[in-house]
Amino acid sequence: GYKVGKATLIDYLKYIEEAFFLFPLEIFSYSIKDRKQYPRKIYIIDTGFIKALDMDTTIGRLMENIVYIDLLRRSEYRNRFQIYYWRDRRQREVDFIVREGFNTTQLIQVTYASSLDEIERREINGLIRAGEELRCKNLNIITWDLQDEINVNGNRIALIPLWRWLLENSFL
């Protein structure tokens, strides 16, 4: 209900980011111009704030937020890798792309699934397409509690429960 100019809004978002309250995630592109002009995904430092601010969200979105914050933590202790999201022209998307230098080392989808039937085809198709485009074979889907492995068209996709993924390298 408040009238706020675009410049003021941008300034406030910058202040909130500098206070480490929220973190923007850029789209992956080899072009810096594309990275800056495409919409960013926003993640909040603590999922408790999401609930406290009465923001409408799903468990899957909360899981995605947790994964991003943990990726940030891991990037500070290891080779300071870069994190992006990926989307193609057909709107297929991958939640997280992990890059070390010029190489894509890992692709991660996050979904609230407890069985193979619950994993949507779009999650798998996005991973496969991004894997082909970025030449990455390390494809992962982080699930609620499903641990398995699936092979699609010669692509191995690891299904990892969120709790197990969080415990991996937790002491780094």
Provide a descriptive summary of the structure in words.
The model has no long low-confidence stretch (mean pLDDT 90). The strands form two sheets. This protein has a six-stranded mixed β-sheet with strand order 3-4-5-6-8-7. A two-stranded antiparallel sheet has the order 1-2. By secondary structure, the protein is an alpha/beta fold. It has six helices and eight strands; from the N terminus they run αβαβααβββαβββα. 37% of the residues lie in helices and 27% in strands. A hairpin with a 2-residue loop joins strand 7 and strand 8.
Keywords, separated by commas or semicolons:
globular, alpha/beta, two-stranded antiparallel sheet, 27% strand, 6-stranded mixed β-sheet, 8 strands
The biggest beta sheet reads: 6 strands, mixed
- pLDDT < 50 runs, ≥5 residues: none
- Largest sheet strand order: 3-4-5-6-8-7
Number of alpha- plus pi-helical segments: 6
| Rg over C-alpha atoms, rounded to the nearest angstrom | 17 Å
Secondary structure: number of strands? 8
Mean pLDDT: 90
- Distance from N terminus to C terminus (CA atoms, Å) equals 45 Å
Q: Could you say which structural class the secondary elements and strand pairing correspond to? A: alpha/beta
Order of helices and strands: HEHEHHEEEHEEEH
| Percentage of residues in strands | 25-35%
Question: What's the overall geometry?
Answer: globular
